Input
Amino acid sequence: MTVANILLVDDDVELLEMLKTYLEREGFAVTVTDDPEVGVEAALSGEFGLAVLDVMMPRMSGIEVLSHIRRTSRMPVLMLTAKGDDADRIIGLELGADDYVPKPCTPRELVARVRAILRRTQPAGHGDEVPAVIESGRLKLFPRQRRAEWEGKQLDLTSTEFNLLEALARSAGRPVSKDALSEMALGRPLARFDRSIDVHISSIRRKLGTSPAGRSWIQTVVRLGYQLVKE
Output
């Protein structure tokens, strides 16, 4: 089995070493840096399966690091945010972070989140339950390659956006609850007041544009969740 290579970027050297030790004990290959500029360069090298970024860093914040990464890369990114800091959390998600973990966090929680993201971002094998193509109207998804097309053109999605769109496409024309979407896309239960799914859905809506009738292709179904319009 391939060992996942994880990049940790945080100015807290003591925390870095603790998380590195724990992740390596869990079977990951880990590279750490307390320099955000070095972190950007490393993230864009193509050598890592996932980056963990702390939001609060001197010289360049984790939000800025994420912005630099997202200009050219769709690699999975997990943000470490201050507990209760909803503004940074939402900005990070809007810029393309896949998920976040509030600090202080336990190494066990971080490992669980990392595993959940990697499970959902690794190219699928050829198991019986993985279709080669999922089609719904103008949308085509290729789960094994984790590739999406909209009206025949490549759709630029983050890993979590792909997961959400796949979940909605599999149930096109029927609502999917936010709880179910969180489990399928993030690998965790939806916490109270957690807006992660809403922010990711908003981003997907922008990328799909509107229907000829001027409506979103992803509809909000009150008290039931979200639904991909079935043509």
Q: What stands out?
A: The chain is about 40% helix and 20% strand. The two ends are 41 Å apart (CA to CA).
